[in-house]
Predict the 3D structure of the following.
Amino acid sequence: MPAPLSLAMLLGGAPPTQFRDRVARWVARQLRDHDALAVTPIDCAGWPASTPPPTEIRKNLHAADGFLLITPEYNGGPMALERLFDAADLPWAGKPVAFVGYGGDSGGERAVARLHERCVARRALALPGPLLCVDAYTRFGLHGELYASLGEPLRLSRLLARLALCAGALRAARGAGPVAIPSVSAGLDD
């Protein structure tokens, strides 16, 4: 049996004890059903904005085969997660990224769109079909229970299966040697 894929679950939003932990607990419970993924949760709100990510976070990101970003919609978006994409030496290129957004009517759609742009800029593989949890503030319990499901468990399971498939294929490609990832504009000037 192949080694499990290393998945970094990046938590954006307010620091612990806030609402984002309810969503993260629910996602973590769903991840238990995916034996192919070894998950490392990373709190992205835990360091000052003016400093680079701590060494431990950098190590975990470099070791990851793929990323699952969990972000709220409020206040215009995922500042802590965006700061990670701005750190020049982090390994986004050639790795898949899946998104879980949560919020009110939009379910985090605008925040996910901002992060998607960052993924493209860093040449990461942003997977289509994010999980958007609408009206999350009334549907997630204190300990991560999901009330009044709108199909989120099945949609998350499918998203994780796509993430595992892409992460495995890209890990195998990286194992075969350096992977050249062309710029989006490559060949457009000809």
Q: What stands out?
A: Confidence is low (pLDDT under 50) at residues 183-190.
